[in-house]
Design brief:
mainly alpha; two-stranded antiparallel sheet; 6 helices; 2 strands; globular
Length: about 170
Amino acid sequence: MSSVNHDARYAPPQAQVEDIAPAGETDRMATRWQRLWAALVDVALAIAVLWLVSVVTPWNPWMDSGAGWLAPQLLPATAGFAIFLLLHGWLLAARGQTIGKALFKIRIARPDGTPASLGRLVGLRYGVGTLVNVIPAAGQVFAIADALLIFRAPRRCVHDYIADTVVLKA
């Protein structure tokens, strides 16, 4: 007669996996491609505005200040955030969208589908990333980690988790 020894070390894990979206929930989520193209439109608009600023004002955002990459980037981060708010503030407040998200028919919302408040969007979703960009080299690391999380099953980036938001099909 053989006795069966059940060693718990070899048992399958019993943990609940939280980053897997429930079945059917991904149907309402924006695709990764929609989010990418929307972000590219938003970046192209920001570059166009920065170019216009460099043409009509003495400030050139692309000129090297000579401080080096280890210097805090307060002016570029503040200017970038101000331009972002000028371009997208009304749409964010009214519909939870940037211009790119509106073009690709996606919107930012809370996980239950309700609209996200403007304070949540500006202060947490976009504001935290802007503050991190002030810190030398940290902005680049944050941006890479932020973008890579989109490849997980829930399609949420770091800024989505910080603000407790999702991007849904509008």
